[in-house]
Amino acid sequence: MSDNQVKTKSFLFAIRIVKLYQYLVSEKKEFVLSKQLLRSGTSIGANVREAQNAESKADFIHKLSVSQKKQMKYCIGWNY
């Protein structure tokens, strides 16, 4: 993998989310919540990759902060 830790960690996180989604669908027959989990868990990596293609430093910071906010909402949501 690359030297970019954010990219690597978001990719590994997405893989874990996909595996969890597959487990929920196949073993627990849960379809609604698992789909939302899949969308939100994999969107973090997509936002990180979009930030890498930013047009300016300010655009990069903005796009990466959106990704960070999504990840925090996801983590906080599971704690409640």
Task: Tell me the distance between the termini.
Answer: 34 Å
The structural domain count equals 1
* Strand segment count: 0
User: What fraction of residues sit in β-strands?
Assistant: under 5%
CATH homologous superfamily heading: 23S rRNA-intervening sequence
Q: What shape does the CA trace take? A: elongated
Biggest sheet statistics: none
CATH fold label: de novo design (two linked rop proteins)
The topology string of helices and strands comes to HHH
In CATH, the architecture is: Up-down Bundle
| Unreliable residue stretches | none
| DSSP helix fraction | over 70%
Would you tell me the structural class of the helices and strands? mainly alpha
CATH class: Mainly Alpha
Radius of gyration: 14 Å
Question: How many DSSP H or I helices?
Answer: 3
Draw up the topology in text:
Layout: H1 5-26, H2 32-52, H3 57-79
Helix pairs in contact: 1-2, 2-3
Quick structural summary:
The chain has helices at 5-26, 32-52, 57-79. By secondary structure, it is an all-alpha fold.
Provide an overview of this structure.
It is built from three helices and no strands. By secondary structure, the protein is mainly alpha-helical. It has one domain (5-79): 23S rRNA-intervening sequence (de novo design (two linked rop proteins)), CATH 1.20.1440.60. α1 packs antiparallel against α2 (32-52) and α2 (32-52) runs antiparallel to α3. The termini are far apart.
